[in-house]
Write a structure and sequence with these properties.
Number of strands of chain A: 9
Strand content of chain B: 25-35%
Oligomer: heterodimer
Number of helices of chain A: 2
Radius of gyration of chain A: 13 Å
CATH architecture of chain B: Alpha-Beta Complex
Helix content of chain A: 10-25%
Distance between the termini of chain A: 35 Å
CATH topology of chain A: Ubiquitin-like (UB roll)
Largest sheet of chain A: 7 strands, mixed
CATH architecture of chain A: Roll
Helix content of chain B: 25-40%
Strand order of the largest sheet of chain A: 1-2-4-3-9-6-7
Distance between the termini of chain B: 29 Å
Number of domains of chain B: 1
Number of strands of chain B: 8
Number of helices of chain B: 3
Shape of chain B: elongated
CATH superfamily of chain B: Molybdopterin biosynthesis MoaE subunit
């Protein structure tokens, strides 16, 4: 877990992935999508989450793993608005977050 | 234009692609690859079909990116060249990938490549196949006769 201060709480009817000690504001809902085997490990294809931006990709991943413990230890990349991002990059806003395990087309 | 279609790829499109490339007087070689769902036997059961899903927006973008790298131009649908083949960039490429449930014996993939010479027809077809497997967010859930399933892993 990269940030011990990541708190996962629920308010306003949506789940909140918040890395601030005290939630100061509401953020737009972000669509989080899971693909391949991650759909079973998370129990869903997609969900609406309130994410406290800015957030580092690694912190977002840790928060998602906290919400869905079965994702821990899984190999997957995170795409923000259809672009794969490095784990140390900062996301300032996102309409969609996609969790992508190894591809299996063809 | 997207290469993705619902369900198995219509194999009649092989003849369509060949005929279209036949009309292109610059083409000297064609190579066709058809991927087919195989009845693999796993300890958990025998594969009866694969349910393919994809992140469509990212998949379309990934196809565009690898085609520009491999053949030097974006995807051009066959019908775009009907009147004047010389207006269509070589190499000629026709690709379809199925999504949704595709049963054993059906085809999730068709790649047709038309080039001036044979070597590049084989090479480009192979490179497109490998790029489709490694660079495009597509997933396959193998459905088994035991009513369980297994997630497809590309070798």
């Amino acid at each position: 877990m990269t940030g011990a201060n990541i708190a996962l709480s629920i308010y306003g009817g949506g789940d909140v992935l918040d890395n601030h000690a005290v939630p100061l504001q509401h953020y737009p809902m972000t669509q989080v999508r899971y693909f391949g085997p991650l759909t079973e490990l998370s129990g869903t294809d997609e969900e609406q989450l309130e994410i406290a931006f800015p957030i580092i990709v690694g912190e977002l991943r840790a928060a998602l793993e906290q919400k869905h413990p079965a994702l821990s230890g899984q190999s997957f990349r995170i795409a923000v608005d259809a672009v794969i991002r490095e784990s140390n990059s900062t996301i300032t806003a996102a309409g969609e977050v996609a969790c992508l395990p190894a591809f299996a087309g063809g | 234009m997207s290469i993705f279609v619902d369900g198995g790829v219509d194999i009649g499109l092989v003849a369509h692609a060949v005929a279209e490339f036949n009309r292109d007087r610059r083409v000297g070689g064609q190579n066709i690859f058809v991927g087919q769902v195989r009845a693999d036997t796993h300890p958990e059961g025998v594969v009866t079909g694969i349910e393919f899903t994809a992140h469509r927006e990212m998949a379309d973008a990934a196809v565009s990116t690898f085609l520009k790298r491999i053949v030097g131009h974006d995807y051009i649908e066959l019908t775009a060249s009907a009147a004047d083949n010389s207006a269509t960039a070589l190499p000629r490429v026709f690709i379809r990938h199925g999504l949704g449930l595709i049963s054993v014996g059906e085809a999730p993939l068709l790649i047709a490549v038309g080039t001036e010479r044979r070597d590049e027809a084989f090479r480009i077809c192979r490179e497109i196949l490998e790029a489709l497997k490694s660079e495009v967010p597509i997933y396959g859930k193998e459905l088994l006769d035991s009513e369980s399933h297994k997630w497809k892993v590309n070798q």
